[in-house]
Amino acid sequence: MTLVYQSTRDEKNTVTASQAILQGLATDGGLFTPLTYPKVALDFDRLKEMSYQEVAKLILGAFLDDFTPEELDRCISKAYDSKFDDERIAPLVKLDGQYNLELFHGSTIAFKDMALSILPYLMTTAAKKHGLENKIVILTATSGDTGKAAMAGFADVPGTEIIVFYPKDGVSKVQELQMTTQTGENTHVVAIDGNFDDAQTNVKKMFNDECLRAKLEHKQLQFSSANSMNIGRLVPQIVYYVYAYAQLVKDGEIVAGELVNFTVPTGNFGNILAAFYAKQIGLPIGKLICASNENNVLTDFFQTKVYDKKRSFKVTTSPSMDILVSSNLERLIFHLLGNDAAKTAELMAALAVDGQYEVQPVDEALFGLFAAGWATEEETAQEIKRVYDHSRYIEDPHTAVASSVYQKYIADTKDATKTVIASTASPYKFPVVAVEAVTGETGWSDFAALEQLQNLSGVGLPQAVNGLETAPVRHRTVVAAEDMQAEVERYLGL
Ligand SMILES: *Cc1c(COP(=O)(O)O)cnc(C)c1O
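Above are the sequence and the pyridoxal-5'-phosphate SMILES. Below is the predicted complex in structure-token form.
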């Protein structure tokens, strides 16, 4: 039997995995979400000997069950190859009092590569399966990392175009240059005068605009999404939680069956939701600790069951988490309400109109899996310094938010469960913040900081930022947030 993926907003809107990947977002505005979970035999005696690719085969095979094993094999071996600068793909590093799961060894040195290196293969395979003749237009809003990782995956992939919108003043210099220097005839990068929420809201609007869909269809085009709203992003992210657990067993840090916590620096709630799905298929997880920066809407939600986006948007040193409308939380809400699409649709409408909603009553067992906390800018910088002083290891600011929240969590709860920190970016992506935090000196330029980071960390400059300073800038378009659709129509010649 094939797994059913249903829209979170309409119980009649159901598709298979490959259809969900092709569509990206449901046209009713909801997100395709599994209604039941596949049975996966998590035998850690076997899992601990498996490569990342073998674990991926097991998990993807279970969740993406209308792909053949051969199709998945091909996608996996093309995705997780020498693009990654570590053959373990997601190495687990033991530090003083925590384990850091390094998810930044792919081509853009952020965790988005974990899923975006495979999504183009899943999508083109799904297109072939369904005999799709249309060209797929990937429309993406990015808070800094998704855009580059999606383009790295989709650049010059036949049958696709990719358009990326990013907040002009909301990303780091390295992030911006990574995007504006992107090559590939099918790539288009647009800066907007606005923040990430503006970008994401307008992208969602375009997905739900029937008139625009008809115009696309007329030109044999159709949208899909590389954002974590696409289930093809979430499922590959389940893999590394299982892999990390297996490595802990292999290294003798835990015995199979022992509970482990994961702390996840969270923005759009995609990464932590993948951990939630890992728990649903039987991974022994104790707490999922949701870590936020000063945009702490999720911390408040887990304390009060009220989601209230009516607050000022803060630009922080962990820009990929500068989000007030956390898209994937909708999937958790749906599950907390016992997979009730009508009620979820009601709450999402309230969010759009009133800027808030309250979920009551919720499935307390599921809700209780989560703990939440947030870190100030100062705490984040202090945490980078603390970890460096203890372990000579430099965390990027997103990872440091998680690690700071974890420190506060243990101080509050005395929970001694072994804990893995999802380390979502290389410090080389945020060199100025990392170097300032460690040295206490300010005024570094991006490129001087890259040099200094090598001296401090003893880790060589990753390929992803090598040569960035001199690479030609190919994308210079800037538009107002309300002109995003006009720009899409212009670019596609609609
Ligand atoms: C995207 C991103 C996050 C947030 O992940 P979500 O899945 O959106 O919650 C955290 N850290 C980094 C470095 C990211 O790129």
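Residues 110-112, 145, 228, 265-271, 320-321, 398, 424-425 surround pyridoxal-5'-phosphate (CB under 6 Å).
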